[in-house]
Amino acid sequence: MSVDTTKVAKSNATTAATPAKPSKLGGAATWADERLGLGGVVKKNIRKVFPDHWSFMLGEIALWSFVVLLITGVFLTLWFTPSMAEQQYQGSYDQLRGIYMTEAMISALDISFDVRGGLLMRQMHHWAAMLFIASMMVHLMRVYFTGAFRKPREINWVIGMLLLLLGTIEGFTGYSLPDDLLSGTGVRAADGFMKAAPVVGTYMSFFLFGGEFPGDMIIPRLYIVHVLLIPGLLLALIAAHMMLLVYHKHTQWPGPGRTEGNVVGYPMLPVYMAKAGGFFFIVFGATALMGGLMTINPVWKYGPYDPSKVTAGSQPDWYMGWPDGALRIIPGWESHFWGVTLSWNILLPILILPIVFWLLVMMMPFIEAWITGDKREHHLLERPRNAPTRTALMVSFMTFYGLMWAAGGNDLIAIRFDMSINAITYFMRVAVFVGPVIAFIITRRWCISLQRHDNERLLHGYETGVVSRSPEGGYSELHLPWSEEKQFTLTSRDRDEVYALESDVDANGVPAPGTRANRLRAKLSKWWYGPAVQKPTAEDFAHAHHHGDHEVEGGEQGKELH
């Protein structure tokens, strides 16, 4: 028996459940998925959960300011001429018209005065560079203070330090390109720094400048490094940083429902993507406002570079200020060996100190892991007060950095405040050693006091403002316990375990392998954890709860009377 299929409905709706012909966008997506297998990857990561906290936005400021740098940088490359060939300037700026200068300087002036929107783009680019480096530094400090660099994120910490280093070098190459008197002074200083390196210094300078300073090749070479080499490395490192962020999942603050094995927050699409997109426009808008209303790097005021001149009161960009401060306050130490002069007053502050300081900060996750012996994975953040020694170390580093940075402006401080520049220099020579120690002691004691305060609140509750009088005539303020959510958050931390060396020798009296290292580790572990205050035990809570029952009853009576 045959069936007339022409009378059978294709669907119980007016529109077919599966269209006979997919849309162009759907067809393109299907075509790509069949060849690249993107569907599974997108489906898995599109619902990726990210926690919501204001401190996580610091890294996004760095990301979006880098995007602004790329956008404005592409615009500037269309008009900038990286050439040191000299020509007579005939542009719109009357004060410099008729003066010979390099084509790089002429193009910088043309961008500022003759290209529509050029000055805005120049200043946005420069402000975005400032914001990029500043936000990276603040983001790295947030990661350090909260312990977000611990296992398994040590590599991401190293990547972040590399990004900070490359961003600093990128900034130096960028503001050196206009070939004005200020940037030329910076390049001249860099030439002197290289020549201070023993044996290889003069060769480095010769090959970089293509001969004697200033030569005619440094601007084109810096241009290639600035627009091609370092941006490529930055893009690769940022991509690796984001991939590891997704792979390891985002850290989060402790709280109810938040554990080492989950993430509580919002999915990437649509919530987080919308927030991130809106935040990009905030960063872009703020940068545009600064670029339009706040003058930065007015090269027309400095004039073209002349090796026989130096800009009065010249200062490097702020992120290069702390090595300059070290250079200014170090005594004029020199050594002479077999006809070779070693300029320690340049080697130490410029070529040795920045590298050692950067390596020390970069190695902090591995140093801390070795001291504490902590090999666990950590996805919950720590409050800075709960890691007193770690927090105090970073504050001491910040104090050292800040004092060096202030020393970089010793001449301007002396002029503004009518002080002796020699007195400022002598003060800074002492302060850079004493200041970090004082900052470390104060910060660690402060954190320990805050830990005690937290324990006091956990065990005895918060102040109610209700004062009761005992039958004997004494007065006391009543306390009420914190909510369970607050108590859980305050106690969501591990107790510290000080590493103890069991024995220096084995059963036969032979020194155990690695005895010296273990002794050092035991001493450092005691110094690291020793003064910290641990969270209350269950017995402490039971005793405090028994003692607090009467206060709660009295508090209820006090509220009724109130």
Brief characterization of the structure:
This protein has helices at residues 24-36, 38-45, 57-77, 103-113, 118-145, 154-175, 181-195, 201-209, 218-248, 268-293, 299-302, 321-329, 344-362, 364-372, 388-407, 410-416, 421-460, 484-490, 515-529, 538-561, and strands spanning 49-50, 86-88, 100-102, 266-267, 334-337, 340-343, 462-469, 475-480.
Low-confidence stretches: 554-562
Count of helix runs: 20
- Biggest sheet, open or closed, and with what strands and sense? 2 strands, antiparallel
Helix content estimate = 55-70%
Number of strands: 8
Radius of gyration: 31 Å
Structural class: mainly alpha
Helix-strand sequence: HHEHEEHHHHHHEHHHEEHHHHHEEHHH
Strand percentage lies at 5-15%
Query: Looking at the chains present, what oligomeric state does this protein adopt?
Result: single chain
Mean pLDDT: 87
| Order of strands in the sheet with most strands | 1-4
Distance between the termini: 91 Å
Which word captures the global form?
Answer: globular
Cofactor: heme
Protein name: Cytochrome bc1 complex cytochrome b subunit
InterPro entries: Cyt_b/b6_N (IPR005797), Cytb/b6-like_sf (IPR027387), Di-haem_cyt_TM (IPR016174)
Catalytic activity: a quinol + 2 Fe(III)-[cytochrome c](out) = a quinone + 2 Fe(II)-[cytochrome c](out) + 2 H(+)(out)
